[in-house]
Structure formats: C-alpha cells, structure tokens
Amino acid sequence: MIKPTKLLAHGSAKRRRLIRLQY
C-alpha cells in the first residue's frame, strides 16, 4: 500500500480524506 507520508507531502485536503479512508 502507498505510504501516507508521500500523500501528506502533497498537502491536498481531498487526498488527506482518502488517506483516512485507506487507514
């Protein structure tokens, strides 16, 4: 699975919500 740190680096609010769902 993709690491949340990489997505967090983007700083996208929409991506942040998707990361929470992945958790």
What does this structure look like?
Helices cover 74% and strands 0% of the residues. It is built from 2 helices and no strands. It has helices at residues 4-10, 13-22. It starts with a helix and ends with a helix.
Tell me, what's the shape?
Answer: flat
Number of strands: 0
Distance between the termini: 10 Å
Order of helices and strands: HH
- Strand residues, percent: under 5%
Find the structural class using helix and strand composition. mainly alpha
Percent of residues in helices comes to over 70%
Poorly predicted runs are none
The major beta sheet can be summarized as: none
Task: Describe the structure in brief.
The protein has helices at 4-10, 13-22.
SSE blueprint and pairings:
Layout: H1 4-10, H2 13-22
Keywords:
23 residues, mainly alpha, 2 helices, 74% helix
